UniProtKB/TrEMBL annotation:
Region (Disordered): 121-162
Claim: Transmembrane is one of the keywords in the record: yes
This protein's name: Superfamily III holin-X
Keywords for the protein's UniProt record, in alphabetical order: Membrane, Transmembrane, Transmembrane helix
Membrane-crossing segments per the record: 65-90, 96-114
Regions of compositional bias (Pro residues) in chain numbering: 146-156
Amino acid sequence: MGPPGACTAPALPAVGDGYPQGMNNRSENLEHHLDRHLVEELAQVARETVRDELREQTRRQRRTALLYAASGAAALYAGAAVALAVGLALASGLPGWAAALITAALLGVVAYGLRGAAHGRHAPHPPHRVVGGSAPAAPPSGLGMPYPPMPQNPPDVPRHRA
């Protein structure tokens, strides 16, 4: 017998890495289970973090969109009030229909100017064909075969006799 309190169970035979036989499989299963559990837990934390961040960004963007919409509505009413004032001022010396027509024309000019200002930011489109130019030796993408040479004379077209 051994010292008091010592385990008297028979020793399990050791396998290659020093663990008793059967213990190696259990530890691998435990590690696999813990790894899978840790990955699931980390994924859950990441999902919650991303969800909270997206919720906060959405809340801020919703508030910004609401403020833009409110400012647009206020600007629309202000523009209508200015158009009414211009029409009434013109109507004091002109018939009502003429004042309305002039006011509409002024609003059309302003709309056209604003449209031009919006389109002025974009670069103009390059022409699709250069007059007097020749086709490039290869497609602009740099892929594929070069263009076939341009014939000197137009192709002969058979003429139908009536």
